[in-house]
Design brief:
Chain lengths: ~200, ~200
DNA sequence: CGAATTACCTACCGGACGTTCAGTTAACCC
DNA sequence: GGGTTAACTGAACGTCCGGTAGGTAATTCG
């Protein structure tokens, strides 16, 4: 299955990144030293620099993977036609699936603070995504499909507050698929948790 | 208005804590050095240690202030009677008000990772709060007031995902009061964002 | 005034941090 | 076996980190 690689066996960039991102999420990016990481990997600190030029590059790779996934869904959504609320539901559902599929990467992304250029670039892309969502909610409200008594910007943030909360509690397991979680999110977000309406 | 203090004027623990928590939120706790903080305060690093025995103590003070606020609301909620869904709404609304009132402290709390004893203690109290919420949702579902087609634990997490998202976007300003935001949260959470039902 | 109180400064410590450099080891291919 | 490729080691580096020791400055109270 796995393509046999040449040279001495060990980590490649991909497998190293997996471990790094997991550790960054457990202890925080700033709270994880390269020595912590090397210990977890079972190799020396300097060996990490064979695969990646700096600690920050690991962060860049991770957050880009998350952002690329989200923008794929956004682009997909933009090419749909039909009512805005249906496109919004598509975006919400797709975002949940990306969150679930790339959980460690998105987790790292959502905790970025903006201390460095890499982090600020990630925040800028995040804001762009947020703007897309807000515009979609505004349009759906203009079409009369979204409650008009709440500011669209607030609605957008609340819905994606729900979506993004997945990084705090969703853990992949056999049984509860990501699609089921996406259904739950859409139900609660669009219809509310109360019965009887 | 302010009680005149004795001794040399300057920071006291309270005013220092305000600045510290704000900076921790901007750069992350681990990403903020005591020298960063001293520069922001306009005093030397060692002067900080006149007010507080360690960096971690600043964190403890902050997260405890957030948790105390949340548990006050929870205790208040537990003493109510009536249907569980009404108590749940009270808890949600009250939590939003605490978030808004103690925003910097709650922000710091919600980013704690569990690297130290202080952080693990905070996480334990958070989990206790989460359990209260989940139990309330379960009860409301048993009383037939909450949609039965979503796992109560998931519902609880989604609703508080919405609530907790406030730390990412809510900024106090004249005009939009915290009570208005609490209304918006309750509307979307309980009735959904879609019109017509 | 002097005592009490409170906030602050200079100078420093040991250790942890991210990163570098010059080699070494283990696999594959001919 | 020899060449190629890729992963890794060990010892250092300059810097920044959280924290300490001992003395000083500015205010209030009597």
């Amino acid at each position: 299955m796995t393509t046999p690689r040449r040279g001495r066996p060990g980590y490649d960039l991909e497998s190293l990144l997996q471990v790094a991102v997991k550790l960054f999420n457990e202890r925080g990016y700033d709270g994880t030293s390269m020595e912590d990481l090397s210990r977890k990997l079972g190799i020396t600190k300097s060996a990490i620099y064979h695969h990646v030029p700096s600690k920050e590059e690991l962060l860049r790779l991770a957050v880009d993977r998350a952002l690329d996934g989200l923008f794929e869904v956004a682009d997909e959504t933009a090419q749909l036609d039909g009512r805005a609320i249906d496109r919004l539901e598509h975006l919400v559902r797709g975002s949940v699936l990306v969150l679930a599929d790339r959980l460690p990467f998105v987790t790292l992304l959502l905790r970025v603070r903006g201390n460095t250029k890499v982090e600020r670039a990630a925040l800028a892309r995040r804001r762009e995504f947020d703007r897309l969502v807000t515009d979609l909610v505004k349009q759906a409200e203009a079409e009369g499909d979204v409650r008009p008594d709440v500011d669209p910007a607030v609605t957008a943030r609340l819905v994606f507050g729900m979506v993004n909360s997945l990084i705090e509690w969703y853990r992949p397991r056999r049984g509860s698929s990501a699609a089921e979680v996406a259904d739950a999110v859409c139900k609660v977000a669009f219809e509310g948790l109360r019965t009887g309406s």
